[in-house]
Amino acid sequence: MIEDNIRRIAEIILKEKKIMNEFSSLSGYLKKVGNEKEKKLISEHIEKIKVSLKSLNDELLKNLEEIHIEKPLNEIPVNKEIQPVKKPAIKMPSINFKKSSAKDGISEMEKEVLKRLKKKKEKIVEKKIKKPSSYVRLANNFFANYVKMIVKQKRLATLEKDLIKSNLDFTSVTYISILMLSTIISAGIAILIFVFFLFFSVTPELPIITLSTEDIGIRFLKIFWIIFLIPAGTFLFMYFYPSLEKKSVEGKINQELPFATINMSAISGSRIEPIKIFSIISATKEYPHLEKEFNKLLNKINIYGYDLVTALKDSASNCPSQKLAELFNGLATTITSGGDLFDFFDKRSQTLLFEYRLDKEKRTKTSETFMDIYISVVIAAPMILMLLLMMMRISGLGVALSTGTITFLIVGGVSLINIFFLIFLQLKQPEAL
Predict the structure, then answer these.
(1) Which residues make Cβ contacts (< 8 Å) with residue 143, sequence separation at least 6?
(2) Sequence-distant (≥ 6) Cβ neighbours of residue 401 within 8 angstroms
(3) Among 261, 312, 351, 394, which is 20 to 30 Å from 357 by CA?
(4) 323 within 8 A of 353, measured Cβ to Cβ
(5) CB 182, CB 238: distance < 8 Å
(6) Bridge partner residues of 211 (DSSP)
(7) Closest-CA residue to 61 (of 8, 111, 112)
(8) Residues 6+ apart with CB under 8 A from 276
């Protein structure tokens, strides 16, 4: 009987601990909630918890009162004298089970438990303030006013759209100002390179740099293209860079989306509010690229005051990933039509996971193809080219190049091809989850 009571007391204390954890979290969350309807629901749930805690506490008192620990005395012979044994007094810690006022309905012991649960380490939140660099400030000072006119006239609408979807930390005015300043600086560098090559020549043999012996007019016609090529290349690279970055972000989001959707499906099964699903996924920090998109969505709701359906449709229009945009639009339609969120996320997660496996197989086949191309271009082709050049030099047919020139061409060509392959594979390689 006593063992049953002790076991029951342990079970009650464990239940009370869980209830107090829930009570603590709900009390903290109640202070942050701004929605009156949600606040009312949480308050009603807290009252139910109090009633449950009170009934458990009454049952605990009842079990404590039923426990009587008694030790049977040994039989003492009559002919022996009984010597009194003095036992030291043991002071037991008093537990006050007295009920507090009916205002809060919580006992003193429960308050002590609450105090212990609230003693947690405070998290230090560090806020990083990003300041624009001197180069960015210089670009804004020179070109911001002119760029604002261009932006108003929608001349670079495609660039602005790509810039928003690429998640680069620049406004359209700032980025276009940087583009213009970089183009002008590259034009100055191009003029310096042009002047250098106008009077000097670079050869693979020592001395590497020598004075040019050609006529200056002929030399000008040979290298004047440098003045236009470098600025044009800089402008085109910076113009298309947001588009390239958008594609890179899209690939990373598509890698994370199937697994995040599975988690969203599990969370939606608890019939939680749809907005909280995005908050929970964002708080896990497991999906860094999806987290940015979800934070944008939450900011539109919490800061700009959009409703969930409008925020989802607006986020879909500015989303770098087509798959994520389809998820947002499908979720908006499901909420509007009153559909089941769990079924929606479950079916969408199965579809995305199937597409993810197909994409993985496609990448494996592509890697095998590039391996064959690499072996052919980097290993076989330079050897054949070197043999042909050496045979031409020995036989005197065609252009006879020196041994140093042939070595320079082969080593330089192989190095450039390797650099190209490394950059290409790095861009194509999906981020590991």
Answers:
(1) 176, 177, 180, 181
(2) 389, 392, 393, 409
(3) 312
(4) no
(5) yes
(6) 200
(7) 8
(8) 267
Q: Has this prediction a pTM greater than 0.85?
A: no
Q: Tell me the CA distances in angstroms from 86 to 89, 93, 265, 306, one per residue in order.
A: 9, 22, 68, 78
Angle between helix 381-395 and 403-428 (nearest 10)? 160
* Beta carbons within 8 Å of 333's beta carbon, 6+ residues apart: 339
φ and ψ at residue 97, rounded to 5 degrees = -95, 15
Which of 323, 322, 321, 342 lies closest to 274, judged by CA? 342
Strand partners, 107: 99
From first to last of the 433 residues of the chain, give the pLDDT tens digit: 667 777 778 788 888 887 887 777 777 777 776 667 677 777 777 888 888 888 888 887 887 777 755 555 554 454 444 455 554 554 544 444 444 444 455 666 666 666 666 665 455 555 566 777 889 999 999 999 999 998 888 888 889 899 988 888 888 999 999 999 999 999 999 999 999 988 888 876 777 888 887 888 888 888 889 999 999 999 999 999 999 999 989 989 999 999 999 999 999 888 888 899 999 999 888 899 999 999 999 999 999 889 999 999 999 998 999 999 999 999 999 999 988 899 999 999 999 999 999 988 888 888 888 888 888 777 778 888 888 888 877 777 766 677 777 788 888 888 888 888 888 777 666 555 4
Residue count of the chain: 433
Distance of CA 172 to the CA centre of its chain: 23
How many CA atoms, within 13 angstroms, populate the side-chain half-sphere of residue 398? 9
